[in-house]
Design brief:
One of its GO terms (molecular function) is molybdopterin cofactor binding. It comes from Amycolatopsis pretoriensis. This is Assimilatory nitrate reductase catalytic subunit. The chain is an alpha/beta fold. It has 4 domains: about 45 residues, ADC-like domains (N-terminal domain of TfIIb); about 240 residues, Rossmann fold (3-Layer(aba) Sandwich); about 190 residues, Dimethylsulfoxide Reductase, domain 2, CATH 3.40.228; about 110 residues, Barwin-like endoglucanases (Beta Barrel). About 30% of the residues lie in helices and about 20% in strands. The strands form 8 sheets. Strands 5-4-18-17-16-6-7 form a 7-stranded mixed beta sheet, covered by helices on one side. Strands 24-26-25-30-23-27 form a 6-stranded mixed beta sheet. The relative contact order is 0.16. The structure holds iron/sulfur cluster. Iron/sulfur cluster binds next to helix 1.
Length: about 675
Amino acid sequence: MPQVDTHCPYCALQCGMTLDGSRVAPRDFPVNAGGLCQKGWTSGSLLTSPRRLTTPMIRVDGALEPVSWDFALDFVARKLTELQERHGPDAVAIFGGGGLTNEKAYLLGKFARVALGTSQIDYNGRFCMSSAAAAGTKAFGADRGMPFPVTDLKNADVVLLAGANPAETMPPFTQHLRGADLIVVDPRRTPTAELASLHLAPAPGTDLALALGILHAVVEGGHLAQSYVDARTNGFEDAWRIAASWWPERAERVTGVSAADMRLAAAKLANARNVYILTARGAEQHATGTATVGGWINLALALGLPGRAGSGYGCLTGQGNGQGGREHGQKADQLPGYRKLDDPAAREYVAGVWGVDPDSLPGPGRSTSELLEALGQEDGPKALMVFGSNVVVSAPRSQRVQDRLSALDFLVVADFVLSETAALADVVLPVTQWAEEDGTLTNLEGRVLLRRKAIDPPPGVRSDLDVLNGLARRLGRPGFPADAETVFEELRIASKGGIADYSGVSYQRLRDGEALHWPVPENDHPGTPRMFLESFAHPDGRARFVPVEHTGPAELPDDEFPLQATTGRVLQQYQSGAQTRLIKELNDVVPEAFVEVHPDTAKRAGLEEGDPARIRSRRGETIAKVRFVQSLRPDLVFLPFHFPGEQRANLFTNPALDPVSRMPEFKVCAVSLSTVDGAA
Ligand code: SF4
C-alpha cells in the first residue's frame, strides 16, 4: 500500500502522522505541527506485534481453543439468546470504550438497543471525561471539551491548567503554550508544573476549595467581568453566596496553597488580555468531580472568558476518541448526536432512523461502575460483551471487578491483543486495530478526523463492525452495516438536529482535508471551530454559574491509613497498558509499577529507593518499587495505573462515585505504606 496520511492510535490530541507499512513519520497537522511523542513514534510496532490475536477462541475445559468465525459467532448468538430468554433482555450487557471510532460507538449503541433490546450499555469514558462533560453541559448547555481550536492557545497570554499534565501525557500539545504565562494546579510538581511561573499545589481532593479561593480573590480584587456576567450569564449571585465565604486565607487552611499565591493567580488571570482555563483528569476524577470542574468554570465565567474570542475554558480530553465516544450512544443514557435517551422527541427521531417503534427502545441503564458491580448478581446482567476496554486493570477496586466478571455466565471480549480482561473471557474475538480499518474520531477540540486504513489486517481478523453485523444477522436483526463509511452515513442522519450534529460531515469532505469541528448541520456548512461566540447552548443563550461547595475527598487519612494516594499516567504507557506494554521501546523505559514517595516518608516506613513497597487501602493493596521524589508532598504517594496483576494501582483506589457524572474517585484515597513483609 502507498503512504497514507492518518492519525495516532492513542490520545485525544490525535496527532497527524504518515504511515508507510508500519513505519511512522510525523505530519504537519495543526494539533501537532510535525511533532509526535514517544508513543506516537513507536505506534507502528503494534501493527507487527507477535502478540496479535488472529483467531477466534472459545474456552473449553478452562483453556481458550481456536475456532472458526462462524462457529464463534453462532455460539455467541446462541448463548446471548438463551440467557435473554431465561432472564430477560437486560441479561446481556455491552461495555464500550473511548478509543473506539465514532462508527463503532454508534453501532454498539444501536446493537444494544435494537438487536439485543438491552438497556445495559456503558463505557470506560466514565473513568475519563464524564465529570467535565456533566459540568460543561450544566454551564454551557453543550459539552465539547475544547470549544475552540488548540492552535488558538498560541496567542494566549495566561493559561491556567487545573489537574492537567500535558507535558507528560501529550507532549506535542505544549508547543501551543510556549508564549503563555502558565499557572499549573497540581499536588505534584509534574513536568507541566516545571514549565509554570506559578505552581499551586493543593492537598489532594481540595481543588474546589482552591477554585473558590481564587474566585473570591478575583471578586475581592475588583476583577469581576461585570458587563459580561450581566449580558451573558445567569446565576452569579447563587455561586457567589458560597464563594463569598471562601476568602483566600480560609482556602489556604484547607488547600495548603498560600493566600498570596491565590491573589497572584487572580491578578495574573484578570490583568491579561487572552486568557484560558483548562481542566483535565486531576480536577475530574473525584467523587466531587462535576462540582470541582464547575468551580473552575465559575472562575472562567467570572473573568468573562468562555465564548470570548481569544480566551476561553476547555477540558483536555484523554482517550483517542474520548469526545466522539461520548456523543453517539454507547453511554447508558444516550442516543446519537448527544441526545438523551429519556427525551421522547429524541427517542422518536432516532427510532425513525433505525426503523423501530420508539416504545421498543429501552430506557437508560446502569452507569459503568454500577454495571460492573451488578454483573452476575441476582438482578444483574448474566453476560457481558466488551469492546475496546480492559476493565480488569482500569476500573477502581479492580479485584472486585475481576470477581464480578468471574461470576458471569458468559463473557465475550473483542480485542486485538489478549488483554487481562480478554484472558478471562469465554469467547475472544480478534479484531482490527487503528491502521487496518477506516473510521472517524473526534479529537479534543471537536474536530472530526478520518483515520484511514493504511495496511491490510492479518488473515483471520475482522473489524468490530463486522462482528456486530454478523451477530445482528444471527439474532434476526438485519440493518447493521459492516462498512465504516456506510455506518457513518447512518450516524450523520441519526445525529442530525442533536447537539453534536454531524449531518454535514462526510468521508469525502474529510478526505478532501476539510477541518470540520461539530456542529456541522448542513452539507455545505463550514463547521464550528469556535462555539459560544454569539450565545451559549442553553435555550436562553446564556451560560450558567452553578453553585458549588467544597466537601473534600470521600475518604480521609486516619491512624491506619495515614497517607493519601493519587494515580495517573506516564509518558511511555497508555491507559491500561494493554497496547504500550507490548512495545519494547516503551516498556523498557517504564516496565513496571513504581510509587513516588518523599524520601522522609519512605524512610519512616523503612524503605529505600528501589525497594518494593506495599501500598494498602481499605479495599486492597498493591506492590510497587519506591522512587524518591524530593518535590512531593510528604503526605502523598503517586502511582501510575498502567500495570497488571499485583501491580495494579486500581487494587486500592476508591470506587466512590460523583453523584452526577458517576465518575469514580481515582485521584485520592487514604493508604498506608510499608515494606512488603512489614506492617504499615
Ligand atoms: Fe499520539 Fe497523543 Fe503522543 Fe500525539 S501526543 S503522538 S496523539 S499519544
